[in-house]
């Protein structure tokens, strides 16, 4: 019997498959690299001021290469929004699962929000609303669906744990909280030259949390924030 020491070296079909897989992987890596590079520029400078030329220069690739994967900047923005929202949804679910109680859950959400908004140029949300309506519609849909459900579930959990007042309407308060998020992104209400985006969002969520909690909840908030407060 012939000893096949060379494996599939002589197998043209196998070699062809390897070549196809190699180029497929290379294309995916390039596509992902374009998204990552564009995101870095958007976060730093906003969306409107960044051009396809800027992205190509930032990645040291040709603009032609970018157009092989994305028809224009708008498609890049919409793709990034879709990926970002999916990541946020997974992050929210993980935070809910890992948190010992509703207060800890909100504190962990605040950490996530702080990390997210601290690296974003505040003009990015204005740019989305004015120049990229489809991407902004994705964000609005996510806000009014996923985020509302997350907050409502969190409030109901807090009621069961004795940390949230039972007399409040969870559906109404969850929608109100979501409108707070969007209000915090409005440059007419909070001019970016006067307010930091992360400070606005953290202040709003802190105010909301204190408004819905019981005395037991307030004590736990102070414990997590290491605040000593007189009765």
In short:
With 231 residues, this protein is mainly α. The protein contains 10 helices and no strands.
Averaging pLDDT over every residue, what do you get?
88
* CATH-defined fold name of the largest domain: Tetracycline Repressor, domain 2
The CATH class of the largest domain, by name, is Mainly Alpha
Class computed from helices, strands and strand pairing: mainly alpha
Distance between the termini: 89 Å
Order of helices and strands: HHHHHHHHHH
Commentary on this structure:
- Helix 4 (about 75-100) runs antiparallel to helix 5 (about 100-115), helix 6 (about 125-130) crosses helix 7 (about 135-160) and helix 8 (about 170-185) runs antiparallel to helix 9 (about 195-210).
- About 75% of the residues lie in helices and about 0% in strands.
- The chain is built from ten helices and no strands.
- It has two domains: about 10-70, Arc Repressor Mutant, subunit A, CATH 1.10.10.60; about 75-225, Tetracycline Repressor, domain 2.
- The chain has about 230 residues and is mainly alpha-helical.
Task: Tell me the layout of helices and strands.
Blueprint: H1 12-45, H2 52-59, H3 63-67, H4 73-98, H5 102-117, H6 123-131, H7 133-160, H8 170-184, H9 197-212, H10 215-225
Short descriptors:
231 residues; mainly alpha; Arc Repressor Mutant, subunit A; Tetracycline Repressor, domain 2; 10 helices; elongated; disordered N terminus
């Amino acid at each position: 019997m012939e000893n096949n020491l060379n494996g599939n070296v002589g197998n043209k079909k196998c070699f062809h498959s390897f070549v196809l897989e190699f180029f497929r992987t290379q294309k995916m890596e390039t596509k992902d690299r374009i998204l990552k590079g564009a995101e870095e520029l958007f976060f730093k400078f906003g969306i409107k001021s960044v051009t396809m030329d800027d992205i190509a220069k930032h990645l040291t690739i040709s603009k032609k290469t970018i157009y092989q994967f994305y028809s224009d900047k708008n498609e890049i923005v919409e793709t990034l929004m879709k990926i970002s929202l999916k990541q946020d949804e997974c992050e929210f679910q993980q935070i809910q699962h890992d948190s010992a109680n509703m207060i800890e859950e909100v504190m962990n959400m605040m950490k996530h929000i702080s990390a997210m908004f601290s690296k974003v140029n505040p003009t990015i949300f204005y740019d989305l609303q004015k120049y990229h309506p489809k991407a902004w519609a994705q964000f609005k849909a996510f806000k009014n669906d996923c985020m509302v459900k997350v907050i409502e579930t969190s409030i109901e959990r807090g009621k069961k744990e004795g940390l949230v007042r039972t007399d409040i309407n969870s559906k109404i308060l969850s929608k109100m909280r979501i409108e707070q998020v969007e209000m915090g992104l409005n440059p007419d209400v909070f001019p970016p030259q006067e307010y930091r985006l992360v400070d606005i969002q953290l202040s709003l969520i802190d105010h909301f949390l204190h408004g819905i909690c019981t005395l037991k909840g307030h004590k736990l908030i102070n414990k997590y924030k290491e605040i000593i407060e007189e009765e």
